[in-house]
Amino acid sequence: MQFDNKATRIRLFDFSSPQMRAFHMSWFAFFLCFFAWFGIAPLMKVVREEMDLTKAQIGWSIIGSVSITVIARLFIGWLCDRIGPRYSYTALLLVGSIPVMAIGLADNFTTFLIFRIAIGIIGASFVITQYHTSIMFAPNCVGTANATTAGWGNLGGGVTQAIMPLMFAGVIAVLGCTETVGWRVSMFIAGAVCFLTGIAYYFMTQDAPEGNFKELRESGKLPPKQSVKGSFLHACADYRVWVLFLVYGACFGIELTINNTLALYFVDYFDYFKEMDTLKAVGMAGMFASLFGLMNIFARTLGGYFGDKFGDKWGLKGRVQWLFVTLFCEGLALMLFSQMSVLLLAIPTLVLFSLFVQMSEGATFSVVPFINKKALGSVAGIVGAGGNAGAMTAGFLFKGSLPWNTAFLILGAIVTCCAFLTFMIKFTQEAEVDAKTDHEIAVQRRNDEIRQEKSRPVAEVLGTA
């Protein structure tokens, strides 16, 4: 589907245009989903002690947390093409918030695992975020827009590592309750905020620059819903989609795995935490683990930004080449981190690894919008599902007797090898020409807008920005 009036710039302080409202609401909604999705991870020490969980059971909870998201992302991409991102996001937030709040009802491993699996539904929010910004922003900045909204959303994975232990401690202090009650109340609060955000998304956004899908179809500005029939199968038939599926599994899949394991990895594998009581160990490990996710505030944006710049200079081929560089460096950095046994050395190595894994994600989705514009939702859904498929596969390394540092080393080697898959992603000469033409038109529009703004009074410009 083609859309007009896409934004040619990202104006962060613009909250009035539909493009920037979608930008801000989509990253914020994804942030909250990510926060709730992995909110239990930094509290797993408490849950493990309460329910007497084994290493294998913790491994299954890691696998379960990302498994259903594979299916959810495939479905939500298909749904976006049909009903639009506004309805899709609203429904996902309202439904997905229920298991987040309800996990507090778990009283044994079986019920805990069921709720942990169900919570993974909200991970499909990523696909809607990428879909919404892809149809709102022009080719000259779509990579940066996609990377920034996804990166700031992924930031929730880092923030939750630091905030959930604080919320947990605060609930215990304020309510005077036990640790058993404290983690349950904390998760209920996270789910309730997601529910309220779902309502806000419905009223504060629209599907496309010119309006909602329903109204655009009724006015004839958008093809009827039946016209997208078969788009999912068409996307499935493109081998490049499955290459990106594997590539995204090697970057976002690794990030999900790290989010699920890092706090517990610090507690179990570094002597620094051995003599601390439970509350302090959970808080300190969560604080250090949050550094990994907090890099999303700029790292993923860099991946998309340089993807746009490489595309500007070398076309679609340049975007793919940049993806290879980031993914290759990610694998090397993960192998290096796996060999760190001293916390003072592990932290900077973790930050370096985080930089490359998140730039790889941004670089991936600077390529995705150019694979198949007519089936954008389906392509985004399949590639996004690859991230969770990668995390689910990686989870099996953490449920057996294999030491976790060895598991990280193996994953690093696999990622390094996956980087070479990017050389399989090819574009026709026609696609290169179309992308170049669209880019030049977008740049011209952006320059015209800038000239018009310079000719208007400053107060008027600020009033419409």
Total E-strand runs:
0
Count up the helices.
19
CATH architecture: Up-down Bundle
Shape: globular
- The overall pLDDT, averaged over residues, is 90
Largest sheet: none
Order of helices and strands: HHHHHHHHHHHHHHHHHHH
How many domains is the backbone divided into?
1
Q: How would you describe the overall organization of this protein?
A:
The protein is an all-alpha fold and 465 residues long. It has one domain (18-210, 232-446): MFS general substrate transporter like domains (Growth Hormone, Chain: A, Up-down Bundle). It has helices at residues 18-37, 44-51, 55-83, 85-102, 109-119, 125-136, 142-175, 179-204, 213-218, 231-236, 239-249, 252-269, 278-294, 299-338, 343-364, 376-395, 404-418, 429-454, 458-464. It is globular and about 65 Å long. It starts with 17 loop residues before the first helix and ends with a helix. One of its GO terms (molecular function) is nitrate transmembrane transporter activity. It holds the Pfam family MFS_1.
